[in-house]
Amino acid sequence: MQPQTAVDSPSGNGGSTNKQPDDSTNEQSNGSVNGQTPETNSGTAVKPETYNIAIKSSAFSPKTLEIKAGDSVVWQNQDFTAHTVTSNSGSELGSTNLAQSQSYSHQFDTPGIYTYHCRIHSSMQGTITVAPNPDYTPS
Description:
mainly beta
């Protein structure tokens, strides 16, 4: 599992919520695990995806997201006020206060349903559903 940090990043990416590789906020988006590229049974490299969730107008967009084990999610605060990304139960997700243009990323290694909210604005809720990925082995 990679460390989760809040980082300053430039705004202006349009707030895209489509999956997009983003090597600047996720060190493992290049598919390497401990410096090695994992392979599938067919011998082709597995490349985890990075998905973006915009925080704007006091909401997570998209509110729900389906990904596979090994994929990462980057939450980008495009709002004028601070927000957090905090697990509803457990400690899987736990950002610091994210100021405007800051982001938080997390790699999901274990299949399951992860619900989260903004600690500052409890009405802001989101869900990440992580499906099994037979070609991914956590490091």
